[in-house]
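[agent] plan:
  1. take the single chain provided in the ticket
  2. run structure prediction with default settings
  3. attach C-alpha cells to the ticket
  4. add a short note for the reviewer (M.T.)
[agent] executing step 1
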Amino acid sequence: MKYRPANKEDLPFIVAMIAHDKLGMLREDYKDPLPEKYYQAFQNIDADQNQELIVIENDAGEIIGTMQLSFIQYLTYQGGIRAQIEAVRIREDQRGKGVGENLFLWAIERAKERGAHLLQLTTDKKRPEAIQFYKKLGFKDSHEGMKLHFTK
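[agent] step 2 finished; step 3 output follows
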C-alpha cells in the first residue's frame, strides 16, 4: 500500500467513498461531474500547510482509502499541536482486510512526526462499529462532543 497526498484528479474517488455510507448519502452531493464546491474545498485544503488530505493506493494504483489530518496549534498544553483525523473511508470491497488499521497506524506516526502531542477524532454515535474499531486501536472516549449546526 502507498500513502500519498491527494491531488485534484483523486477527488471523484474520495467523494464517492465519503458519500457511500448511510450518513454520507444524506449530506453529500456526489455525481458526475463532481460539483465545483468539492474542487473549491480541495484548493483550500491543499493550500493550508496544516491540512493533509491523504489517499491510500493498492499495488495496482487504485485508491482504496482516504482520510484528512488536521494539525491545530493552540495555547493549552504549553502551545501544543493537536492532530485531528476526519473523513476516514475505506473502499467497501477493502474493508476487513487491515487497510483501516494500517491507515491509522500511519496517521499516528505522521502526527508524531509533525510534533503533535495527541491525535483525536470524532465519530457519529450512529456508527457503533467505528467506535469499537477506534477503541481497539487505543482511542479513549475521554470527552463529550457537541455540535451546533447552522441552517443554510
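[agent] step 4 note for reviewer: Residues 99-113 form the longest helix (15 residues).
[agent] ticket updated
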